[in-house]
Write a structure and sequence with these properties.
Keywords: Coiled coil
Number of strands: 0
Radius of gyration: 46 Å
Number of helices: 22
Helix content: over 70%
Strand content: under 5%
Distance between the termini: 52 Å
Protein name: Clathrin heavy chain linker domain-containing protein 1
Pfam families: TSNAXIP1_N
Organism: Galemys pyrenaicus
Largest sheet: none
């Protein structure tokens, strides 16, 4: 318990001065461990722990109350200073307001005076300066001599006419009357209404077409003289007419509409839709990014699944990381229905459902160690490898820890192997000894190879622990390489 207290104190970074909350939590956990260990005094220790928790909570509540009261005391102590400051600020603002009011009155008087002078000036201008076009005034842009010259006047008149024509042309090109804009708005409203009517008609025709297809398929199913559904589907696949049509801009893909209609009526058929047509429909739905349709088909409709269909959905999930979890779940459903246990386990592991995968392995006992090695190669998660190398419900681990480490180093997955070595080295010698004793698959030579791997990758203590555990096992003797005279069969003749 003392070692646990010291370890936890160092881990959370506490010292003797605080923080106290971490100390309370550590000692509370120590109380729990003592109570679990000492069964005879469990009621007494539980009562003591309850009093301890109550006492600690009372101390915390008192500390919070003290902090609150200190804050209130500071506020009360600062009230006289705050009041004096506010009074001083009021005096300053009142002085500023008086200055602003005086300036405002002066400015307003100046404005009124200017308005009065402006009004008087306008009256005089209207009374004495009325506009009249006097012919005796000089023409703008011409001198007095030019204004009495007929040729100059004719030339200037032509210049003015050209300028007028240019201005008129610019006006007709750059500007349009307001009535024209109103007419265009009305035309746009009419065009939008026509578009809405056309879209509604298109939707009605699309719905009627789907109803016709559904009715035709239902009638075909009910009739007993028509060919089999599989032959009918093969004829449709041979024509490839829907593939030739391709996409139409602004409209759904015709091939997708076909699959949607066929799969939607799959419950009316005597037999489910065959695997080839199912695969083509799933490919079409995923190519149009309609994962919602594919999900509905896989979970609701009567289809025949295949390994290729599951692979297509899982590959799509690898490309679309946002929907990867949904694709793995759909692939899991398909692989389970097809009896593909290895790929079913791979989907579970990629979703992080390691415990469910282990339970499934306990039920499905045909998996070999090579299959498990391939699984951790495709899904190299340390949590998965730890689950595979631990006992489960009292049963031995499905995979050897030592062989798994050696396999990871042999297939260029050194980082995962080093991470596992780091995890096992944290538990000390007891942890590695427990693993070695409960590992029936890994031989002494394999453990020696693992010890050399640890030594090469900087885990000197772990390598030393493995060698010392091997030496301590009964029946294990270390033979020096320098002693060539050792007779390995000497015990047979005694």
């Amino acid at each position: 318990m003392q070692r646990y207290i010291v370890t936890e104190t160092i881990r959370v970074g506490c010292n003797e001065e605080g923080p106290a909350d971490e100390y309370y939590i550590i000692y509370r956990n120590v109380f729990d461990k003592v109570i679990d260990y000492v069964k005879a005094y469990k009621p007494i220790l539980t009562s003591i722990k309850k009093e301890y928790d109550t006492f600690i909570e009372t101390i915390k509540r008192s500390q919070r109350t003290t902090v609150c009261l200190h804050g209130k005391l500071k506020v009360l102590a600062a009230e006289p200073t705050t009041l004096a400051y506010h009074r001083k600020r009021i005096t300053q603002l009142e002085a500023k307001m008086r200055v602003i009011e005086n300036n405002s009155s002066k400015i307003q008087s100046q404005i009124d005076k200017m308005k009065q002078l402006r009004a008087e000036y306008d009256k005089k201008e209207v009374k004495y300066c009325t506009f009249s076009k006097g012919p005796s005034k000089p023409i703008p842009g011409m001198t007095v001599q030019e204004s009495v010259n007929l040729d100059a006047l004719t030339k200037y008149l032509k210049h003015l006419e050209d300028k007028y024509a240019e201005i008129k042309q610019v006006k007709s090109q750059k500007y349009i009357p307001a009535q024209k804009k109103a007419d265009l708005d009305e035309e746009m409203i009419v065009a939008l209404k026509r578009r809405d009517l056309t879209e509604n008609l298109n939707k009605e025709l699309h719905h009627q077409r789907l109803q016709i297809i559904s009715y035709a398929l239902s009638s075909w199913v009910k009739s007993g003289v028509s060919p089999s559904f599989q032959d009918f589907m093969q004829q449709i696949q041979k024509t490839k007419d829907l593939h030739v049509i391709g996409k139409i801009k602004g409209r759904p893909f015709p091939l997708l509409l076909f699959f949607e209609a066929v799969f939607g009526t799959s419950h009316a058929f005597r037999r489910p839709i065959d695997a080839e047509l199912t695969l083509e429909g799933i490919k079409c739905g995923l190519s149009e990014k309609r994962l919602d349709l594919v999900t509905n088909w896989v979970t609701q409709e009567r289809l025949t699944f295949s390994e290729e269909a599951g692979d297509v959905i899982c590959d799509y999930g690898e490309r679309d990381t946002y929907n990867k979890a949904k694709c793995l779940a759909l692939g899991q459903i398909i692989y389970n229905k097809c009896g593909l246990h290895k790929k079913f386990l791979l989907c579970l592991c990629k979703q992080g459902q390691f415990h469910a995968a282990i339970e499934y392995m306990q039920q499905f006992k045909n998996l070999t160690s090579d299959d498990l090695m391939q699984l951790i190669k495709l899904c190299p998660y340390t949590e998965l490898i730890q689950c595979l190398t631990k006992e489960w419900n009292g049963k031995p681990p499905p995979l050897s820890f030592g062989l798994a480490i050696l396999h990871l180093f042999s297939v260029d997955m050194k980082k995962v192997g080093i991470k596992l070595l780091q995890e096992i080295s944290k538990g000390g010698k007891d942890a590695i000894e427990h693993v070695m004793i409960n590992d029936p698959f890994c031989s002494i030579e394999n453990w020696q190879e693992m010890a050399s791997l640890c030594l090469q990758n900087g885990f000197h203590k772990l390598s030393h622990d493995i060698i010392s555990i091997l030496r301590s096992q009964a029946g294990v003797t270390e033979i020096s390489t320098e002693d060539d005279a050792v007779n390995l069969m000497e015990h047979v003749f005694w």
